[in-house]
Amino acid sequence: QVQVVExxxxxxxxxxxxxxSCVASGNVCRITAMGWYRQVPxxxxxxxxxxxxxxxxxxxSVKGRFTIFRENVKNTVFLQMNSLRPxxxxxxxxxxxxxxxGDYWGQGTQVAVSG
Length: 115
What we know:
This protein has 115 residues and is mainly beta. It is 0% helix and 62% strand. The protein has strands at residues 2-7, 10-12, 18-26, 31-39, 46-52, 55-58, 66-71, 76-81, 87-98, 102-105, 109-113. Strands 2, 4, 5, 6, 9, 10 and 11 form a seven-stranded mixed β-sheet that branches. Strands 1-3-8-7 form a four-stranded antiparallel β-sheet, with no helix packed on it. A hairpin with a 3-residue loop joins β9 (87-98) and β10 (102-105).
């Protein structure tokens, strides 16, 4: 089993920044991909950003404002979120792909932009 733990969520004013962190631990063979999804009530979970072999991909809505990067040795991925916009609170989920064992998800961390 692989444990995935997110941190860094909170309440921020429009235009502000937050950095989310995610650590994978446990029966990690090799983490081949890491990513962030978000979900607002009623809506489906949507991809925000992902990274694999140094290649990144972003949702159109966050391009130029969010940056995903990872520390391979620590099996940690970060999501730097700048110029945050007022929107409904969302839960951000981290997901990792373990070379052996498949995909794992964290419990989520809530982000709210208001003020």
